[in-house]
């Protein structure tokens, strides 16, 4: 599992390319304010919008999640812990005034782009 990419995954890169092509500039791997060892995949720091691109397996996608048969208890605990951490991160960011857009790896990049652009538009108005 060490060989699995933690950043610069194909879905993340596709979204970043679309954002860049639209003239949007962002930070990559930005630390979550106030939470050690947690990062945003994409951050628009001036308007406080963050984007996390979640892998379906690692974050327990409600549509595509799979549960390994080998060492099943450990994997279930691991994935449930990831989901709890995602929820806590989302709540923390909202508490400190950030908007978080969560994108699943199975999403069509253009659909994810539309959601991110909508969040940017909403945040820039406030």
TrEMBL record:
Q: Does the keyword Phosphoprotein apply?
A: no
Under the heading Pfam families, the entry gives: Vsr (PF03852)
Q: Give TM regions.
A: none
GO annotations under biological process? mismatch repair
* Top-level taxon in the UniProt lineage: Bacteria
Task: Indicate yes or no for the key word Cytoplasm.
Answer: no
Q: Report a single Gene Ontology molecular function.
A: endonuclease activity
Give the signal peptide range: none
Fetch the InterPro entries from UniProt: DNA_mismatch_endonuc_vsr, Restrct_endonuc-II-like
Keywords, comma-separated and alphabetical: DNA damage, DNA repair, Endonuclease, Hydrolase, Nuclease
| Similarity-based family | Belongs to the Vsr family.
Name of the molecule in the record:
Putative NaeI very short patch repair endonuclease
Give the species this sequence originates from.
Blastococcus saxobsidens (strain DD2)
